[in-house]
Give the backbone structure.
Amino acid sequence: VTPQRNFHRQAGVPVSSRASIEVEGNTMEGSVQAFVMEVQGFIEDYAMPRDLARAQDFVPQDVAEALALLDMRVFNMDRHPGNLLVLKEEKPHTLGPIDHGCCLPPWWCLSEAIFEAWLSWPQLRTQPSESAIGIVKQAWEKLPQTCKMLRETGLEESAV
């Protein structure tokens, strides 16, 4: 396996790298992710409390917001309860989002997004935390640099 570019951990996403591997004389490209420890199960196996205080005891607001903001930023079109891990045995839990194969779609696919994993969570139906506001400000400030990096990877312009 030949690593091409490392992507740093954000919003609980396991460290990921683009990679290529030769299989029977053919070079295949894709990505690999670090193994995730302390997995308790998928979020679909748990019920997120509807009460804000109890929901924040289960998954802190800043953790939920970081995930939601990342999904919106990369326009993850397939975030559902089956690709969101609950981490740590004791509360509050953290989240381990997996399966990012439907991110950065061309603009004409944007109406097909699914955010059902976290859309109804009380932590995301209240005033944003200072942490979330900081993430948004940083993303806005880095937007030109982010777009440049995406173009350098060969992503189609319609998805940038």
